[in-house]
Design goal:
The structure is a homodimer.
Chain A lengths: L10 E4 L1 H17 L3 E2 L9 H8 L5 E4 L2 H7 L6 E7 L5 H8 L4 E5 L2 H10 L4 E8 L7 E2 L3 H11 L5 E8 L10 H19 L7 E4 L2 H6 L8 E2 L9 H6 L9 E11 L4 E5 L2 H4 L4 E2 L5 E2 L1 E7 L2 E3 L6 E5 L3 E5 L2 H6 L5 E6 L2 H8 L2 E3 L4 E2 L10
Parallel strand pairs in A: 1-20, 2-10, 3-4, 4-5, 5-6, 6-7, 6-8, 8-9, 9-10
Antiparallel strand pairs in A: 1-11, 11-12, 11-19, 12-18, 13-14, 15-16, 15-19, 17-18, 20-21
Helix pairs in contact in A: 5-6
C-alpha cells in the first residue's frame, strides 16, 4: 500500500535507504581513520534505527539524557554513554539502569563525582568533558587541578571507572574554519592523553559533532567519533557543507489546507509543534523553516524551483511557493518539508513512518494516531 | 510532601491559583463587555484545566487541530471548535467525533466545504475565517463572492450549519497599535454581520488573540472572544503589555548541573526539547529564552536581580546569572524558568506538575517518568 494513503495529519517520513547510506558512509570514514564510531542517538532516539546501525558494526551509542538512555537500555547496546553533565538528582535511576545496562556518564565538576562516589551501588563509567574553545560546558582543557581532583575522588569508589576525555566542538556549527577547530581539538585531546595515559593506559579520547566529523580529514590519534545529526542530516547541515540535500533522510509530510495563488502562498497543517522553530536566513533576510519536496510513491523528489516555509505558528506553516509548485498542488494533497534541524523535528514528532508504511519508534513515543 | 522532592528532571510546574485568576479575570472582562468567552485550548490542552475553566462559566472551547479536539471530546464541553482551516483528509475522523461531541470547523475556501458537503455523515457547524489584515489565512473580508459560494455549497448539505465569522488578528503580536487593529477588526465583523444576518439571524462573530483581548476596551457588537495564551501568559505577553510577570502560571523546573562563577553562568538540564526555542531580544541584542525564578514550597518567587537563559541547545540551557543567584545556588538544586512562549513549552512537555505534587494531563501525554 502507498504510504501516502495512510497519512491524514502531519507525519515524519523516514527514507531508510538514505538513512542507512549516511550511517554506512560515516562508519567507513571512521574505519578509514581508525576511529570507533559511537553515534549520538539524540537525533534518531530509536531502537529500530539502532538495529540498522548495528548492521554497520556499531556497538555503542550515546544518549543526551538519562530518559533517552532508559528508553534505549537493554536493546542490544554494549554501552550507552550519557553525554550531558550528569544530574545528581538522577542517581537513583542511574543505579537502577546500571544493574542491567553497561552505562557511562559525563563529568564536568568535582561535586557531581563526589555524589556519585558516595551513592553509586552499580558499576558506572565516566568521561570528563573538556572545553577546548566552545564555551558551553566542560572542564577547561588546562584546568589540570580540577581534572586531578575528579580522578582522585573517583578512585575512592569501587563503582566508578574512568573511560577518557570527551570534546563536543559545537563551534563548528557557527565558525567557518572547521579544520582549525579540529586542529585545536586534536591538540587538546592529544595533550590530555599524553598526560594521563601512564596512569590510565586504556583511556580513550572522543570528538563529537556532525559538521566536523563530516568534513574533517585529519583526526590525529583521537580514538572515537560521536556525531549525531549525520544519521538524518538536515538543511542546516547542507548550509554548513556537511552533506547534500539528497542526503537528508527525513521529511515532514503535511496536508495542504489552502492555496492563495495571488500571493504565491500555500498553507499547510505543519507548524512549530511539528517542525520546531529552528530556521535559516535567506539571502533577502527572510526566514526559512524548511524546504518543500514532492512526495512520490517510493520517496521524495527535490523540485527544480525552490519553495520554502516562510512563516510558522503553532500549527500553521505558510509556504512561499514557486509557480511550478502552485500549478501542481490542490487542497487535500500532501507535501514534504525537509527540516532545518532534524533532531528537533524528530523529537517534536515522536515517531517515524517508513516509505513502506511501517511506524518506527522514537523515545518520545508520540505516534500521531487518535 | 514538597513537590520539589519528586522532581529529578525538567518538569513543567503549574500554579493553579495564578491560572484560575487569569481565567476568572478574562471571564469577568467578557461578561462586562457582554461577550461569550470561548477560550482557545491550544495553550492548556488539558481536561483537568478545562474543569477549572467550567467553574467560571465557560461552556465551549476551541482546539487548533482535530487531534486536540479528539483528546478533549466527551469531557464536558458543549461545543469544540477547531480553529484551523479544515483538512479534508480528516473527514473520516470528523464524522466519528461528531457522532458524540458537538463540533464545528473553520472554512477558508470552497473546495473544503464542497468535500464536507459531499462526505459528512454527522452534523457539524462551521465558521468562516476572515482575514482582516493579518495575512496568514482566511477569506479576505471583502471577498463576498467566495463567502456567498461557501454558504451556498453548505446549504446543500443537511449536516452543515453556519455559525458565523471568526477573525484571529495575529498582528497584535507584532504591531504596536492594538486599538487600531481592534477598530479595524470590529468594523470588518460588524459589516459582515449586517450583510449576512437577515439570512442567518443566529450568526455570531468572534475575535481571538490574547494581546488584544487582554488590553482592548471596546469590542463593539462582537459576540464572542477566543483568546488562548491568557490561561498561562508568558514573557512574550509581558513584553506585549498583556500581563505582569506575576501573572505567568507555568514555570519549567530544571536541575542545576554545573556552575561557572568566573563567567556568571549556570548550566541546567532544560533545553529546546523542553522550553521550545522562542526567544525575546535583550536591549544589548542577546537572546533571552526564559527568565529565572526561585522555587519555594508554595510557588515561585521572581528575584530582584534578573537572570535569564542566554543560550539553548537540545537539552542544555545556559543561564546568565546575577551575583545574587550565583551566591544561592548549588549543583543539584532546582531553578524555575518562566517561558517565553508557554503554548510551545506546554506542548513540548506534555504534562504539568501542580504545586501540591499532582500530575495534570496535557493532550500530548508525555509525562516525564521512566
Amino acid at each position: 500500500m502507498d504510504y501516502r494513503s495512510q497519512i491524514t495529519s502531519p507525519t515524519l517520513l523516514i527514507d531508510e535507504k538514505i538513512c542507512r547510506a549516511n550511517i554506512q558512509k560515516m562508519a567507513e570514514k571512521a574505519e578509514l581513520h581508525q576511529l570507533e564510531l559511537i553515534p549520538h542517538w539524540k537525533t534518531a532516539q530509536s531502537k529500530k534505527i539502532g538495529e540498522w546501525a548495528r548492521e554497520y558494526g556499531i556497538r555503542k551509542i550515546t544518549a543526551s539524557s538519562i530518559r533517552q538512555a532508559a528508553y534505549l537500555s537493554n536493546s542490544g547496546w554494549e554501552l550507552i554513554h550519557i553525554a550531558f553533565p550528569f544530574n545528581i538528582r538522577e542517581i537513583p535511576l542511574l543505579n537502577k539502569l546500571a544493574k542491567t545496562q553497561p552505562i557511562s556518564v559525563q563529568i564536568v565538576n568535582t561535586y557531581t563525582i563526589q555524589e556519585l562516589a558516595k551513592n553509586l551501588t552499580s558499576p558506572v563509567g565516566f568521561m570528563i568533558e573538556i572545553d577546548a574553545g566552545y564555551g558551553r560546558t566542560g572542564v577547561h582543557m588546562s584546568d589540570f587541578a580540577k581534572i586531578d581532583e575528579i580522578l582522585q575522588i573517583a578512585s575512592t569508589s569501587e563503582h566508578l571507572s574512568f573511560f577518557g576525555f570527551y570534546i563536543h566542538p559545537g563551534h563548528t556549527y557557527y565558525k567557518p574554519d572547521k579544520e582549525l577547530i579540529y586542529h585545536e581539538t586534536r591538540q587538546a585531546l592529544a595533550m590530555l592523553k599524553t598526560k594521563y595515559e601512564s596512569q590510565y593506559p586504556n583511556l580513550v579520547t572522543r570528538i563529537g559533532d556532525t559538521p566536523g566529523c563530516s568534513v574533517a580529514t585529519d583526526f590525529g590519534d583521537i580514538d572515537q567519533m560521536g556525531p549525531g545529526n549525520f544519521v538524518f542530516y538536515d538543511l542546516m547541515q547542507v548550509e554548513l557543507g556537511s552533506c547534500k540535500k539528497s542526503d537528508i533522510a527525513v521529511a515532514l509530510a503535511v496536508p495542504v489546507v489552502d492555496i492563495v495563488p495571488e500571493r504565491n502562498e500555500i498553507l499547510v497543517h505543519g507548524g512549530g509543534v511539528h517542525l520546531a522553530k529552528d530556521h535559516l536566513i535567506e539571502v533577502d533576510g527572510r526566514k526559512n523553516f524548511g524546504e518543500i519536496v514532492i512526495l512520490k510513491e517510493d520517496g521524495w523528489e527535490i523540485p527544480e524551483s525552490r519553495s520554502f516555509v516562510k512563516s510558522i505558528s503553532q500549527e500553521h506553516g505558510l509556504i512561499q511557493a514557486s509557480e511550478e509548485l502552485l500549478n501542481q498542488v490542490q487542497v487535500g494533497d500532501l507535501l514534504g518539508i525537509l527540516p532545518v534541524h532534524s533532531c528537533m523535528t524528530a523529537d517534536a514528532m515522536g515517531a517515524y513512518l517508513s516509505l513502506s508504511g511501517e511506524w518506527i519508534d522514537h523515545a518520545e513515543e508520540k505516534k500521531f494516531k487518535v
